[in-house]
Write a structure and sequence with these properties.
17% strand; 226 residues; 8 helices; binds ligand 4FV; alpha/beta; 8 strands; three-stranded mixed beta sheet
Length: 226
Amino acid sequence: MRVDVLTLFPSAFEGGPLDVSIIKRAREDRLLALHVHDIREHATDRHRSVDDYPFGGGQGMVMRVDVLDTALTHVQAEEAEPGLVVFLTPQGEVLNDAIVRELATHPRLVLVSGRYEGVDQRFIDNRVDREISIGDYIVTGGELPAMVLIDAVARHIPGTLGDEASPEEESFADGLLEHPQYTRPAEYNGWTVPEILLSGHHANIEKWKRDQREERTRERRPDLLE
Ligand code: 4FV
């Protein structure tokens, strides 16, 4: 999979969560190709401005349609096949496991990380395929949301997780939360491990895990059961 990111802060994507562990290895193994692009390189005026005051007044600044459109056209042209354009915004569909799995089926994604109050609506109306939110709260920029999306999607690229885990057997895959996990030491501070997990009785253990997942989901996320 190829992922391009359009951002005003390319350095945010260096030396961070996309440069360690599983994602780092996926990039080294050429399972994931990440290309980060500076939107400001496509500013045309002598102040290299990428934003301006909102028409109709209001607080803050808005990112310019001409700069974003030029930047996106340039990036899309780097490959024969254009990528699915995803704009990270609080106005988007809230990201969940089903959306992550759908995005992971695309050979190329082009993510747009905004800043300021937002971007000119004409860019969204004419050049964006999907608007995605990572949750109902506001962060300072679209960079972290883009990294969250890249990390979640990359886990579904065949070979990325290796035999560590399969995305099929995890929370949300079947709409249930995960069961409690335990490991050595079996004894610590008087805090004990459920006997059943030490019993070696696989059928009983699997039933316990299933019951725990259903109970937790009922208690914590009944919305998932609907
Ligand atoms: C956001 C979110 C988010 C809004 C204005 C960046 C900020 C600023 N993006 N999911 N929640 N974006 O808060 O995706 O430009």
